[in-house]
Amino acid sequence: MSSKILNKFLNESIADLKERGMYNEIDPVQGANGPQINIDGKQLINLSSNNYLGLATDERLKQVAKEAVDTHGVGAGAVRTINGTLDLHVELEKRIASFKGTEAAISYQSGFNCNMAAISAVMNKEDAILSDALNHASIIDGCRLSKAKIIPFNHSDMEDLRQKAKEAVESGQYKKIMVITDGVFSMDGDIAKLPEIVEIAEEFDLITYVDDAHGSGVLGKGAGTVKHFGLQDKVDLQMGTLSKAIGVIGGYVAGKQNLIDWLKVSSRPFLFSTAVSPADAKASTKAIELLMESTELHDRLWENGRYLKEGLKKLGFDIGNSETPITPCIIGDEKKAQQFSKRLFEEGVYAKSIVFPTVPRGTARVRNMPTAAHTKEMLDKALQIYEKIGKEMDVI
Ligand SMILES: *Cc1c(COP(=O)(O)O)cnc(C)c1O
């Protein structure tokens, strides 16, 4: 017999979300998530993926992934600490450390898992975490899991951070204090003020943790936000994902050897969940090798980002203050942004609307993620469609 209470809860919760226009219907992509995608049999220019460098469909990565299946099979077979650590995982970790300019690195099954793993391995209920108000959901959940006191500071507000760090230190209540931030904030494309954050961290002896999911492959000639600012020696934990610019799946934390040694014996997703598959490990390693050999993809990403931004701006759209290729098109009204995205879809562009509570009320937007894999023709076509709908809906 199924639970009546559960049924009631589920039906009411779903109905409530639908009533508030917040129930997300998922569109399955038919085939690969490339610069153009097929949904419902319709071909669309894809401006919604995190596949910044186009590596998710790169032939070189596909080739090494196939080889890894032949030599190592399809699964790691066990958690890392039993015998699921394959030579391919070790190679991947070495490669990540050299990419990030750190002594060592540990890989996890996802970026989300990294934040579940690393924050609670380092922080506990006697500690406090200063967390940017716009930090990613996985950071928030990782902080909660640690049971440390969470002290949010206003987004990128360094005065507020300094003040709260000072209060936390002076209260004498906490054994350790961490400051944690996204490297690149994915809703607006702005970059964390890492030089100031590091300075405040040094002043108050804070542990520094940067989640660089959107910075890796994009900033610092590909090596990320920390490298962009030349702060590799000053950030204690550099966390990143292998699923966005790297194009595969998995996550990592890079830092000093003793940090990585500790995470390998104490972080629970490492101890109790099986590692990524051989094909994933090998493809990620190859992707990082490609990024270290050449900035070609990185340069193309930035060029496409600039092209799209200039085009939208010239048309009269409000593209916010992004400092990265992430290009929001701010519409304002929630319903209008959703309608705008729907019209883009009908005309052949896939760009999702992002509304409250993900972004503040009244700043609803359509977010565009240009990638290295887009051609000028695709971007020109997207711009034409933007122009048509912008005029039709009175946005420009
Ligand atoms: C996407 C994202 C993650 C999660 O990474 P996955 O590898 O997809 O689990 C973590 N942090 C930030 C800031 C992200 O944008």
UniProtKB/TrEMBL annotation:
<protein>
    <recommendedName>
        <fullName>8-amino-7-oxononanoate synthase</fullName>
        <ecNumber>2.3.1.47</ecNumber>
    </recommendedName>
</protein>
<dbReference type="InterPro" id="IPR015422">
    <property type="entry name" value="PyrdxlP-dep_Trfase_small"/>
</dbReference>
<keyword id="KW-0663">Pyridoxal phosphate</keyword>
<dbReference type="GO" id="GO:0008710">
    <property type="term" value="F:8-amino-7-oxononanoate synthase activity"/>
</dbReference>
<dbReference type="InterPro" id="IPR015421">
    <property type="entry name" value="PyrdxlP-dep_Trfase_major"/>
</dbReference>
<dbReference type="InterPro" id="IPR010962">
    <property type="entry name" value="AONS_Archaea/Firmicutes"/>
</dbReference>
<dbReference type="InterPro" id="IPR004839">
    <property type="entry name" value="Aminotransferase_I/II_large"/>
</dbReference>
<dbReference type="GO" id="GO:0005737">
    <property type="term" value="C:cytoplasm"/>
</dbReference>
<dbReference type="InterPro" id="IPR050087">
    <property type="entry name" value="AON_synthase_class-II"/>
</dbReference>
<comment type="similarity">
    <text>Belongs to the class-II pyridoxal-phosphate-dependent aminotransferase family. BioF subfamily.</text>
</comment>
<dbReference type="Pfam" id="PF00155">
    <property type="entry name" value="Aminotran_1_2"/>
</dbReference>
<dbReference type="InterPro" id="IPR001917">
    <property type="entry name" value="Aminotrans_II_pyridoxalP_BS"/>
</dbReference>
<feature type="domain" description="Aminotransferase class I/classII large">
    <location>
        <begin position="43"/>
        <end position="384"/>
    </location>
</feature>
<keyword id="KW-0808">Transferase</keyword>
<keyword id="KW-0012">Acyltransferase</keyword>
<dbReference type="GO" id="GO:0030170">
    <property type="term" value="F:pyridoxal phosphate binding"/>
</dbReference>
<comment type="subunit">
    <text>Homodimer.</text>
</comment>
<dbReference type="InterPro" id="IPR015424">
    <property type="entry name" value="PyrdxlP-dep_Trfase"/>
</dbReference>
<comment type="pathway">
    <text>Cofactor biosynthesis; biotin biosynthesis.</text>
</comment>
